[in-house]
Structures are given as C-alpha cells and as structure tokens.
Specification:
Helix content is 50%, strand content 13%. The protein has eleven helices and nine strands. The strands form three sheets. A five-stranded antiparallel β-sheet has the order 1-2-3-5-4, with helices on both faces. A two-stranded antiparallel ribbon has the order 6-9.
Amino acid sequence: MPSTDTRYHQLLNWLGTDLGYPVESIAPASTDASFRRYYRIGADGQSLIAMDAPPPRENVRPFVAVAELLRDAGVQTPKVYAVDAERGFVLLSDLGERNYLDALDETTAEPLYGAALATLLALQQGVNILETSLPAYDAHLLHVELNIFREWLLGRWLGLELSAEESAMLAGTWQVLIDSALEQPRVCVHRDYHSRNLMVTGQAHPGVLDFQDAVIGPITYDLASLLRDCYIAWPVERVQGWMSAYRDQLLNAGLLPSSDVHRFQRWFDLMGMQRHLKAAGIFARLKLRDGKPGYLKDIPRTLSYVSEVGPRYPELAGFMRFLDSRVLPRLAEAA
C-alpha cells in the first residue's frame, strides 16, 4: 500500500497497537461495490479479515448488529472479534476465499443451491420480525430503489430524456411493482443474497456476507436475488424447480398463508423485476460515480430477466415496449 494511504496505516496501528495482534501478513481480501475495503491478515497463526469502512461514508454498527442477529438465527456469518465503530474498523473471522460464483457448475449447482436455500429458510424462520429493530422495506424505500434505474441507467448512462407519457408510464409501473411487494408476507430480508455473497466453507451451509443492509420486507426478495442472480443465469426450468420446492418449504414452515401457486409466481416475478431494475441502475452508478466499470457487463444479463418475465403481465405492456424500443437498443450502442 502507498505510504500516503492514511486509512491503511491507521488500520495496521489499530490491529498491532490497540488490539495487540502481531500482523504477519496482509493482503486485499476482496473487491466490494461499496466504500468498504477488506484485508486478509495472518496474525498469531490464524487467518482473519479486517474491514476498513471509512466514516461518514460507511457505518459498521449495522454490520455488527446484523451479523449477531443472523448468527442467532443459525446463519453462518463472520464472527466479530473486535470493533472500533468511531474509526470504522472491524476484525472478523475468515470464511474463506471461494464464493459460490467461483464454485458453481453443473455438478455443484444442486448441492450448493440446496444449502443456500436451507440457509435462507433458517434466516426467514429464525429472525423474529416483531422483536428486531431492522428497518422496514416500505413503499418509500422501494420507490427510491426503482428510481436508481431511472436516474443512473436511463438518464446518466444512456442519456434518455423521457416524455411526459413515458414518465407517467414509469410511475405506473413502479406502483405495480411496489404494490406486489407490499402485499407479501414479511420476513427478514438479507437484500443481497446471491452467489458473490455466499462462501463455500467446507461446512454444510454457506458463509453469508454483505448483510448489513438487511430489512423487514417481502418474502420473495432474497429468493429472487438468489435464483435470478445478476452474475450467473440458469435455465428457466431449473429456476422454476428450485422456486417451487422452496415455496413448498415456506408453506410447511407456516411462513406462507396459502398454496396459491399463481400468486406466489407473480410475487416472485415482480419482486425480481424490482430488484433487477434497481441493480441495473446501481451498475451504471458504480461506473459513473465510483469509477468501477466492471459491473457494466452484468447489465444485459440483469435486464434479460425483466425481458423474460415482463410479457407475462399485461399491466406491464407499456413498460416492456419502452424497454424493447428505447432502452435495450441504446444499451447495445453504449456497450
């Protein structure tokens, strides 16, 4: 690290002087879509992870609180060994270097997704939403997220100027997606449950990362995030099989009030659509605001899910025409 990296040297001083860990080796542990940085350190004969989350851009308190909440629910999150919340430093256990995205192939998909879905059920069953202080995934937050797509992908990345009719169409589309989300049973939502945040640890269930933005919200959100992953796609039939089997598990666990297959499918489809529109906007924002262009390549896959499910719902016909005629051609030109 350069000698001018003040945060890095403060972190080393915290580890060595304040905590008394003899740092024998240190190297970047992962890339991240936030302002956080992670380092894998060798200290006292063990491998640990040090998080640098610079205030005021990041706040480690939600990370620490949710890590404990999910561990109590039976989810394998990193153990928190030390925290300096004021300076934004956290020392964690190391869940390894191999995430699901690196490990998934035709032979590993079934056991890995089986483990991921079992962990998701533990998360949804194990967190008592009446006793937690997690924020609500409410209409305002859903609307804010959808507008990331409008501002950053449509406006700033593609340079589209919307007519009054197109703006009204988007507003109507957002309302359809928000209404569908809000009518669902509510559970703890990880909010970024996908292949890059699940770690292969050698144990029966995956290690789970990047949970600090957890909320109380729609029951299908994490399921759609996992099965219609922005970073890896599976055949439609396979996804449907996993989704249907998980719906049955939710029914057996008492987390779903009825076995209305078509209603659950609609929830799953429209929740995924909300997430994918948001994610596409975030990928554009990462390029334009944060100087991280690598996520642009994931936008076509992400929007392909929208193209897949949108035509099933007549109330989204206007948006699908807009996507096909205005957005996707401009996106191809910008590639």
